[in-house]
Amino acid sequence: MVGTLLAAWNNPRLCYGRDLECANRNFGFNQQHGSDDLDHSVAARTPFAIATAERFVYNVAASYIAKGRGYDPSVHLFQFNPYNRVQPLKAPRGKHARPESGQDAFFVSRLGAVPGEVALGVADGVGGWMDSGIDPADFSHAFCDYMAATAAAAPAVMRGTGQPLTARQLMQKGYEAVCHDPTIWAGGSTAIVGLLKAEGLLEVANLGDSGFILLRLNGVHAFSEPQTHAFNTPYQLSVVPPSMLLRAATFGGARLMDQPRDAEVTRHRLRHGDVLVFASDGLWDNLFNQDVLRIVSRTMAGAGAWAGTESGVQVAPDLRPYTRIGENGLAADGRPTLQSALATQIVGAARAASVNTKLDGPFAKEVKRYYPDEVWHGGKEDDICAVVVVVSEEEAPVKTNP
Q: Are 208 and 21 in contact (CB under 8 A)?
């Protein structure tokens, strides 16, 4: 992500808002936008025997590729295993241990000690910091590492509130950790954070122009809107050194005070068979929501997870054959897991669109809308990162009294 640098905040190295590159996305078709109110739609499910209960299971995979690098779906892939032991974070990962996602970063983590609950997010580093000799990836990757560690160690209720950790609080804690990290003296990123709860609830906090989409039964059910101050100027979090603040005060410049409290929060009730996509603007600048829906529908139908019937699209009753990860990283039938297939298909399509000079994508259409005399055709090359979730309800044994 490319951007220009502005402004400041306070403590210990001035955390503040920063201009960066944005693409307002032209959706142009009928969709339901998420709101702070829960979507109270209820899935039609077959009742199970009294000795079992249904639990939500979140099957997660991520795919990514840095700008200008060759994309290999078998290499640029992460599959989340909730049973892997999480080591306490002593410091953010070094550059050598990061995925090849460029200035984009992501995390997927267990959410505290509650079985099955998941926290995830995507952060997109501000490329404009490179003009000051700063690697934007240092901020975004450390930010995600800190959020992952905070989520994994989250107590059942937060001190002071008596309530569980929220998506906005997780963003705040990750941001505070970056601000107090002496190895990160400057930088910034956008952020989108999601919490997936055991009862099938999703909470999202979005700041900037990364975003998410919720797909259900061959349709777009909800999506996030980019938060921008103007074209190419999305909200973001930043750490600004005092010297840069002094120069801004001397020579002038706008001051954008974006903080985690400015993130838009939405909540959604999930259903069996839903697909979630969280991604950086490298994806949304190159694929419309219709494009993502088309890829997901084709992949889900091809696997047998979604099927057309006389009464409409239906979800397979049991998604475990498609989503459960075997020892070799594949599903039970020897094919890639459904979540990994979705992630790689989506990122692969976005990567292809980004280097296509003929087919105008969302970013090109926005340029034409704001600057009619500007010549911009095709896609927009950028780092691309997507985290995909396949939601399933599975039978779990219930303890009964003899």
A: no
